[in-house]
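Readers of this paper often ask what the protein records in our data store actually look like. The remainder of this section carries one protein's record, kept here as part of the documentation.

:::
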Amino acid sequence: MKNHTLRSIALLIAFIISANFLAPVTSAQHPEHDAGHIGCEELGHEIEHLAEQLLNEGYIGQGVKIAILDSGIDSQILKGGVSYIEGNPYDIDDYGHGNPVSDIISGIAPSSELYSLKVLNEKGVGEADAIIDAIHWSIANNIDIIYFGFTFDAYTEELLEAVREANAKNIIMIAPAGNDSSSQAAFPAAFNEVISVGAITDGEISGFSNYGEYVNVYTQNASLTYQGTSFNAAMPVAY
């Protein structure tokens, strides 16, 4: 089942290539700020449909280890985690971002193993050193997929080196493109080794979503519970 789930990600990318939604990655800088909450309480019909489809095909994430680098996750389904925010446990989401991300991933791939690597504080702010440490933890613990729940403009060679180390271990990395309606790239999404995800609404790039050559994948936004490319990026993590 693990190989099936990882293969399904490649199939998703191949489909997007055929639909002319894939472009090469370049480097630039621009921060992301999530666009806000739409206001419905349940995941949209699209995610439910995807979940049903993947479950029917046997893609339930069995044996796949996913590290969620975000603001923590309040969930009993976690296999474990680490907090890089002093005095702030990994199993508490006091920013309200990690929980909906984990809901999307676990809803589509319910048998995946989720690990909460808390790198954002209660204000949604994090440090590059914490992200680098979280990547190294993921490598040491044989993580299959790393999800980055943020973007920022703090490019560092140290961060790039950590991303390259993870890539050398065949870890799939996925990050949001950013929510500034800009063609300027954001990190870590702009790194060649990371799959960058933007948002589309009714076949058009969503008004808040970043766009351009560095964005690899666009996923449907309209039916998501939360609006922002961070949540769009959670969908291909589970594929």
